[in-house]
Write a structure and sequence with these properties.
Blueprint lengths: L4 E4 L1 H8 L5 H13 L3 E5 L1 H16 L4 H13 L2 E4 L4 H11 L6 H12 L2 E4 L2 H7 L6 E3 L12
Helix pairs in contact: 1-2, 1-3, 3-4, 5-6
Length: 152
């Protein structure tokens, strides 16, 4: 039996670690995967994108340095398997071309999901809106139920 997996992008994982409006939904989705034994995967650039996004949050003043470092430490310990399936670079390039994406970063997630035959999940609304109707594997965090109410 094939292992059940999902490919996650950095935008979704950061919702698990940094408190934002849709963080409860992201946590609920993560728990549902964990309970069903679904493993998370991502392309190798995932860790670099998380690091860059956390640094950007610090520079913008959205997150304190200590909190960002703590979130980065958590990213490094999360059970997310970095994958580089055969043909990844070429497929990411082709997807960037076919989907009219100005850069290939997001397409590495889409290509990883496609080459592994799994779903790709994002919290990036712009990416989702731009390509969801042209790729079968991409799902947005909003497709998961509302999640638990935020704790006060």
């Amino acid at each position: 039996m094939a292992e059940a997996m999902v490919c996650l992008d950095a935008s979704l994982v950061l919702k698990l670690l940094v408190v934002e409006d849709d963080s409860p939904r992201a946590r609920s989705l993560w728990r549902s995967w964990t309970l069903r034994g679904i493993r998370a995967v991502a392309p190798g650039l995932f860790i670099f994108e998380c690091t860059s996004a956390l640094r950007r949050m610090v520079v913008r003043g959205d997150l304190e340095e200590g909190s960002a470092r703590q979130a980065l430490g958590l990213v490094l310990t999360m059970p997310i398997s970095l994958r580089a399936p055969a043909g990844l670079i070429e497929r990411a390039w082709d997807l960037a071309r076919d989907l009219d994406r100005p850069s290939a970063y997001d397409c590495f997630y889409l290509a990883t999901a496609e080459l592994l035959g799994v779903e790709c999940w994002t919290a990036d609304r712009r990416l989702y809106n731009a390509v969801h109707d042209r790729t079968r594997s991409l799902h947005h965090l909003s497709e998961h139920g509302p999640g638990p109410a935020p704790r006060r």
